Amino acid sequence: MPVADDLTTVKDDMIAYIEGHGMRRFHGFVNYEEVQCIVWDSEDDPDGWKKFVELAKDSGAPFLTMHAWTLDRDDLDGLMKRVSGAQFTSDDDLEDARWLRTYVGKTGFLQLGWPYQGSVMLYETGTEWYERYQRLVELSDDFGGIPIDESDQDDEH
Questions:
Q1: Position 1 pLDDT exceeds 80
Q2: pLDDT attached to residue 147
């Protein structure tokens, strides 16, 4: 099932649902690289996050972590500068970055989580444009003026 272009309404629904279940929210982002995570498979159910919240409640979790990412103009301007200055980006990449202007002020990514026995259970949803944004961020971070293959100067002597 396709995800809406703006997840703000879903975010508001999540807040109401979590608080309606008597749980608290901890505003924070769970980074996969820092903690062991298990990602919820909502099986293309746009309301799968409700089952996730119910499971957290039934498991005794006193709170859920919650992160919402909204595209702001400064983030997009910075990305456009990095993409236009990177050596290995194409005109299509720059056009994709310009295309993202339509989504300034919109919520593109939501993450819910709760700790359980040494792991963090995660639910995530994102828009198609957020995935494009992330691809451009990774592209500009990987190739933004950084040589791909640096030979060691000592090897040459």
A1: no
A2: 39
- Cβ-based neighbour number of residue 37 at 10 Å: 15
Task: Calculate mean pLDDT across residues 19-37.
Answer: 96
Q: Is residue 148 part of a domain?
A: no
Mean pLDDT of 101-126: 97
The domain containing residue 27 runs over which residues?
8-143
Please indicate, yes or no, if residue 110 is contained in any of the structural domains. yes
Burial of 150 (0-12, 13-18, 19+ CB in 10 A): exposed
Cβ-based neighbour number of residue 97 at 10 Å:
24
For the chain, the domain total comes to 1
108 falls within a domain:
yes
CA 19 – CA 51 distance, rounded (Å): 15
Question: Does 149 map to a domain?
Answer: no
Whole-model pTM: value is 0.84
**Which of these, 9, 1, 13, 8, lies nearest to 50 by C-alpha position?**
13
CB 94 within 8 A of CB 84: yes
